[in-house]
Amino acid sequence: QNRRWEGGDPGVANQKSPTCLLLTPDLRFHSFGFAARDFYHDLDPEEARLWLYFDKFKMKIHSTSDLTMETELEAVNGRRVRALEVFAHALRFFREHALKEVKDQSSTVLEGDQVRWVITVPAVWRQPAKQFMREAAYLVG
Question: Organism's domain of life (predicted)?
Answer without folding.
Answer: Eukaryota
